[in-house]
Specification:
With 204 residues, the chain is α/β, with parallel strands linked by helices. The chain contains eight helices and five strands, in the order E-H-E-H-H-E-H-H-E-H-H-E-H.
Length: 204
């Protein structure tokens, strides 16, 4: 069983990954943001480092999906391989922060990787408004995230909604993070778990 959690920066992906991993006793695979050698440089100079950052993330997530397939374990994955290709990289290109040449090169590589991997059995999309994202980003206090602009988060949210509206590669569960405070409310987490159970019971 492969469940992947999708959502904008600050939506609570890592927290939910941890909570669900503990509940189900499944392996958690995290986005290695703190270990990423490009992330801090990227937020200082997006145009210079955008391509490097996206290639690093693409490589990292492809390796994770390969690991999931090879081990055969039940896994909760923090962020999907699709988000970089359909949200972050196109957004950087549209903002003029990634050249057309680099974007086309990147997307060609993604298409090749996508043809070699299987979609998650279930994607959980954490939908959150920009004020909630900003609040949660501030609470975790990562220095390199201080430079994130509100208009950048807004653009990403718009692309997430466009991607989710057309996603048809597997089962999808949408959680409204403005209403569901799973990170601090056990009942809210229970509601998510019940919805997941209802989805995955049909997968076995």
């Amino acid at each position: 069983m492969h469940i992947a959690i999708a959502g904008n920066i600050g939506s609570g992906k890592t927290t939910l990954t941890t909570l669900l991993s503990k509940h189900y006793g499944w392996q958690a695979l995290y986005e290695d943001a703190d270990e990423n050698p490009y992330l801090s440089d990227f937020y200082e100079d997006m145009q210079r480092w955008s391509f490097n950052l996206q290639i690093y993330f693409l490589n990292s997530r492809f390796a994770q999906v390969q690991e999931i397939r090879n081990t055969g374990k039940n896994v909760i994955q923090d962020r999907t391989i699709y988000e970089d290709a359909h949200i972050f990289a196109p957004n950087l290109h549209a903002m003029g922060l990634m050249t057309t040449r680099d974007f086309e090169n990147y997307f060609s590589l993604f298409r090749l990787m996508d043809s070699l991997v299987k979609a998650p059995d279930l994607i959980i999309y954490l939908r959150a408004s920009v004020p909630v994202l900003v609040s949660q980003i501030q609470k975790r206090g990562r220095d390199y995230e201080n430079a994130i602009r509100i208009d950048y988060l807004k653009r990403l949210n718009e692309r997430y909604e466009a991607w989710i509206s057309t996603y048809d590669s597997g089962k999808l569960l949408i959680i409204d993070v403005d209403e569901n405070k799973f990170h601090e409310n056990a009942e809210h987490l229970g509601e998510i778990i019940n919805k997941i159970d209802a989805q995955i019971n049909g997968l076995f």
